[in-house]
Amino acid sequence: MQAAVTWHEPSRAACATSRFPLSLCSGALHGRLTSQFFGNTSGDDPWDETVLLGLQVSLSAVLAMITLATVLSNAFVITAIFLTRKLHTPANFLIGSLAVTDLLVSILVMPISIVYTVSKTWSFGQIVCTIWLSSDITFCTASILHLCVIALDRYWAITDALEYSKRRTTCRAVAMIAVVWIISISISMPPLFWQQAKAQEEVTMCVVNTDKISYTLYSTFGAFYVPTVLLVILYGRIYIAARSRIFKTPSTRGKRFTTAQLGAHFRPGSGRAVEAGVEAGSSGGSPLFTNSVKVRLGDAIAERKRISAARERKATKTLGIILGAFIICWLPFFVVTLVMGICKDCWSHPVLFDVFTWLGYLNSLINPVIYTVFNDEFKQAFHKLIKFKRCN
């Protein structure tokens, strides 16, 4: 790494993101970033080599911990599904496929991105660059699209429960996963063909160099904006459908009675009990038995209402976390990517773009938490895995 780098205005051909085209930084920008934020040994720069090294080590440690946590959490989800027969359902296979995709992001993309983010120089050669770019775009897009197919599966399961339960098979889940990967590959392939024209040049940056605005729109809308709109619509309808099913008006026979009410409505000697003007017992029935049945029925209805309210609150919380985490993690990156692709004279600082990039990676860590922590079956599977490891 050079001690000082002279700043030059980047050309349009040199500007590109590390994952989607038409972006923010060229080699000159990386040099400027290194000069400003990772140290400059000239006498005018207050940061010496010790401070520079400390910053690099600290940043590397933080990013490495995020990567390791992503690997472990997704591996845990995959192991739980594989070893727990109760989790072998089409819906959980979709979650397992999401975990596999996020695991690939953490193994094939994030470690190299740590080195590239810290050093600001590509030193792995053209072949590794091509593989890394392809993996980055494909796996991150597939992770986002998996959220869509999971939402679509849940929407069908709630709005058309009886019919969809017959069609909700493993083959259908496999087909949905295949569609996700086909779309993801179709988004990641075009820049690789354009990059081959510069394959013989010395590689100091691993970016997708293109000025094609059509591909910027195609990639950003296909990988984020369209899936985001679909997610918002689906989860909005899921919430409305679930709420309407949970809070259906119960039968009038489910009204709970207190002891005083039961005494008031019981007619001595008649052998019958009257429930708010509606006969609840049969002729010759035991008053004690009738009252006991009423109390039990009332308690059951009250308990059902309590559980329904708890489910509604949990559903609201879960949907909010799912949408909130997804949008917070990916929206900044794709907004900057789209704006910089359309506006050639607009400027965004490379450090800010690195933050947005890793914020998107962070979604691969959050996904297994969201889709398992709020699932009781996964909780039980995790507890069994932990006990099994302790026993061994």
From TrEMBL:
CDD domains (alphabetical): 7tmA_5-HT1B_1D
Keywords recorded for this protein, A-Z: Cell membrane, Disulfide bond, G-protein coupled receptor, Glycoprotein, Membrane, Receptor, Transducer, Transmembrane, Transmembrane helix
A GO term, aspect molecular function: G protein-coupled serotonin receptor activity
Protein name: 5-hydroxytryptamine receptor 1D
Gene3D superfamilies in the cross-refs: Rhodopsin 7-helix transmembrane proteins
Location of this chain's protein in the cell: Cell membrane
UniProt domain G-protein coupled receptors family 1 profile: residue ranges: 73-371
An annotated GO cellular component: plasma membrane
InterPro entries (alphabetical): 5HT1D_rcpt, 5HT_rcpt, GPCR_Rhodpsn, GPCR_Rhodpsn_7TM
Topology of this chain in the membrane: Multi-pass membrane protein
Transmembrane segments: 57-83, 95-118, 124-152, 173-193, 213-235, 321-343, 355-374
Principal subcellular localization: membrane
GO biological process: one example: positive regulation of MAPK cascade
Family affiliation: Belongs to the G-protein coupled receptor 1 family.
A Pfam family recorded for this sequence: 7tm_1
